[in-house]
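Observation: inputs received (chain + zinc ion).
Thought: call the complex predictor directly.
Action: predict_structure
Action Input:
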Amino acid sequence: MRSADDWLKLLHEVPDPEIPVLNVVEMGIVRTVESNDASVEVKITPTYMGCPAMDAIADDIRAQLSPLASQEGRSLSVELVYAPAWTTDWLSDSAKAKLEAYGIAPPGKTTDKRALNGEAPTVRCPKCKSEATELISLFGSTACKAHYRCNDCAEPFDHFKCI
Ligand SMILES: [Zn+2]
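Observation:
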């Protein structure tokens, strides 16, 4: 029988629907995995409120794990947990590096509160690493991202908003 760790490893094969270079574990979506003889329980926390991808993520996790759980005669549950709320601080450093390599400027630390004072945080261009960037739109390709342009290489890019 698979252990909780084995199930967690399998979850590394479930990509985030919006950012396919990251899996749901790297995204910090998977909170806990518990298993006993009868069942496997996965708890996940939604990322940005209103991100429509959450149902898709739960479905993807079920599709990945449920055939294997059935083989072992165990039930599978995927439960949404809303507290504590997800934060971009749960993204691992390797996840942030992958985001940047993918062309999305990763979020900074939520302890950077400059935005509250009306100052824009410094966002580094994922392509040329210049910090001479400007905000084009608060909403990029999805509500979770803001759209920026680099003034050095003229490349437009998305910034994963920090929450
Ligand atoms: Zn650039």
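Thought: report the result.
Final Answer: The longest helix spans residues 53-71. The chain has a mean pLDDT of 88.
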